[in-house]
Design brief:
The protein is mainly α and 446 residues long. The chain contains 19 helices and no strands. It is found in: Membrane.
């Protein structure tokens, strides 16, 4: 149970790495369609509020545990529980987090593989002149083809695990330092293009002028759940990254920077997407098909549409790539804690995730009618239960451990915010974030 020797080389590297863990499908695919389904500006306002009250304090709690333990998630939890005189069974929370991201990455890799297919199709101009019905039928045919899904799933997962196998400095850090600025550059270019369309003004009004009468309990629950999901809290990925955090970096400032960058991605993606949707007179509430059916139709009808659509799917691929790399890290760190080398651990994780992901691949064809639990096929099961129940449960237990169980001095040192800042954070976690997480968890169970 020795401390990890690996560290992020700079404070900027840590912020980009955690941002890479947070930014992904939740920002660029889920945020636009869930905002479209829940009233636009009202949802956005609630989402930002819950990022501050729920997501940010919980993110700090998870990073804090990793920084204080300086070990793999399982070892950090066991070590700190021993210091506090608490049950060593807390260490199993690290294994629960690894199993959670194992399930999530298995379907995440499959869905992220779709962006490879759509990027190639966009570059080839395959969507030009096709109706929404034709594009929708093409998408359905793609999902029903296990060979194409397997190829993209395999390619995407190989891209992911090769980077993880290279290690913190040579793999994760180098790629995050390259791809995250590229991702923001692409977002700014797409938002700049959106500003030239007729839908830019309506999109801004719809996103930033809230109708308070649209606030409902369902909208509030959706905003709470998304604020939790989008910051990658609850799976011990941030705990693994906290173990590599530089010694003299302010955790609150770093976490606040990550939260702002994460929200900025969602906002820029929303502006780019809804400007195009409104420019074509389409419905922003199209649901999950907004990304893979509505957008190809909308972009194809605009000047230079194939180029901009290609850039958009390149952006989606980069975002999901960085996020999947960071999802894989806690699993690899857990196996390293059991004595495996990083290369061996990465190979084991990659093969296991690929195997479970094949159940998701087949869920759109031969296993489409197979019901595993609760009337769901394998893809529906792994894309619902882990993100909606396991993540909030893991986040809740991590927050309880950080705010109630850990030795106070260890928490105080790891947070590095002074006694006043520490009391503010702990009270916010204890009396605001934990109750809100219980609401998110209860909503997922209902």
């Amino acid at each position: 149970m020795n401390e990890t020797l690996e560290r992020w080389s700079t404070r900027r590297a840590f912020i980009l790495a955690v941002t890479g863990a947070a930014v992904g499908l939740g920002n660029i695919w889920r945020f636009p369609y869930i905002t479209g389904e829940n009233g636009g500006a009202v949802f956005l306002l609630l989402y930002v509020a819950f990022v501050l009250l729920l997501g940010l304090p919980m993110m700090m709690a998870e990073i804090l545990v990793g920084r204080a333990g300086r070990r793999s998630p399982m070892q950090s939890l066991g070590h700190l529980a021993h210091q506090a005189g608490a049950s060593r069974h807390w260490r199993w929370l690290g294994l629960f987090g690894a199993l959670t991201v194992f399930c999530i990455l298995s379907f995440y890799s499959v869905v992220s593989g779709w962006s490879i297919e759509f990027l190639v199709a966009s570059v080839n101009g395959d969507f030009v002149g096709r109706s929404a019905a034709e594009i929708g039928a093409g998408f359905d045919a793609f999902l029903a083809d296990p060979g194409r899904l397997t190829l993209n799933h395999t390619l995407f997962l190989a891209m992911t695990m090769l980077v993880v196998a290279a290690g913190v400095a040579k793999g994760l850090e180098k790629l995050n330092n390259l791809l995250m600025p590229m991702l923001y550059g692409l977002l700014l270019v797409l938002a700049g293009y959106a500003a030239t369309t007729e839908g830019f003004g309506p999109a801004l009004s719809w996103l930033f002028l809230p109708d308070v009468s649209a606030v409902t309990p369902v909208v509030m629950l959706q905003a709470m759940g998304h604020a939790f999901f989008t910051l990658a809290v609850g799976a011990c990925a941030l705990m693994a990254y906290g173990a590599y955090m530089p010694d003299h970096q302010s955790l609150p400032r770093a976490a606040a920077a990550v939260a702002m960058l994460d929200v900025a991605v969602a906002l820029l993606a929303g502006i780019a997407i809804f400007s195009v949707v409104f420019a074509q007179g389409m419905d922003p509430g199209e649901g999950p098909g907004l990304m893979f059916v509505t957008l190809p139709v909308a972009f194809a009808e605009l000047p230079g549409g194939p180029l901009w659509l290609s850039l958009f799917f390149l952006l989606l691929l980069l975002a999901t790539w960085t996020s999947s790399i960071n999802l894989a890290e806690p699993m690899v760190a857990t196996l390293q804690g059991w004595g495996l080398g990083r290369g061996q651990a990465s190979a084991v994780v990659g093969l296991a995730v690929w195997g479970l992901g094949m159940l998701s691949v087949l869920s759109f064809s031969s296993l489409a009618e197979t019901r595993v639990l609760f009337g769901m096929n394998p893809f529906e099961l792994v894309s619902t239960i882990p993100p909606e129940i396991f993540l909030p449960l893991g986040g809740l237990l991590i927050a309880i451990f950080a705010a109630w169980v850990m030795p106070e001095q260890a928490s105080l040192r790891a947070l590095d915010a002074g006694p006043g800042g520490f009391r503010l954070w702990r009270n916010l976690v204890r009396w605001v974030s934990i109750p809100l997480t219980l609401v998110v968890l209860a909503a997922g169970l209902i």
